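[worker-b] picked up task from shared queue
[worker-b] task type: protein-ligand structure
[worker-b] ligand name resolved to fe (ii) ion; SMILES cross-checked against name lookup, match
[worker-b] sequence length check passed
[worker-b] input payload:
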Amino acid sequence: MKKIIKTISVIVIALAIYSLIPVTALYLKKSPTPYTNEEAIEKLEDNKGEHFAFIVFGDNHSGLVFNDSATLKLISRINREDRFRKVPIDFAIVAGDLTNKGSLWDYRVYNKVRSLIKWPVISAVGNHDDDGKGAEYFREYVGKREFAFGDRNAYFIVIDNSIGDLGDEQFKKLEDELKASSAYKHRFIVAHKAPFSPYQQSWYRPELSPWSYRFMKLCEAYKIDAVFSGHEHIFKAQKFGGVKYITTGGGGMLTHFPSADGGFLHYLVVRVYGDYFDYETRRIFPPLWEFLTYYMWKEIFYSIINVIF
Ligand SMILES: [Fe+2]
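[worker-b] inference finished, payload out:
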């Protein structure tokens, strides 16, 4: 019996060490030439047809080994999404907090991480991307913070609400973009912070801020299909005023919410058809070393709490 336990332990430890190889290779990888959001969008210009898909995730928080290892696992799955060649995947979009603390190291790692995704990657800005000199690095590595673009029959508006508010100028710009979007069959918004917290037990309560109501009423009036956000490291989807609000903050950062409530690593595959869209949430099992050092204990902790209280 002792021998079996010993053998199993050795195998698990060997596999855990093996699961660290991709992140080690990432750090040793040479930094590719960065590309901006504008350059990524240019690659979509020749897309034709009404059926397509795109990938969404948020909060990869590049620059910390736990986060990077998990994001690499996500990317290995993302890159296989087109294996059946049914719906073309046009791009991936990241809903902010691309970096852990906005440092140069973080941006360099994000640049490497992004280069591993098979499709053009469009990045929204999150609050952590501005930490320290982050705003400067964002300009250099990512480009614009607020922009809109059309792809086939859909219009995408990316906004910067990283400070947790939207000013009058931003609302004016947003409304102009919303008017422009009416020429398209589908309208999507990407904003790092959702206008409400999807999780009751969260400290974050944006719905108490005036921008939240104003923003949601605009989304309703202009018939937005979906708003994709991150910020909270969780998966949750809700519908208000005919608009789907999806929080998809499981792109790599350690998730501290219970997995039963959406605290798991994941990304979304959104498929757009003629006049409707749908999405699938791909839940990713963490790299083994990360499961053994964090995720397993998180779930044990919540299980004990549930039993005691
Ligand atoms: Fe975050």
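[worker-b] attaching auto-annotations
[worker-b] The radius of gyration is 20 Å.
[worker-b] releasing lock
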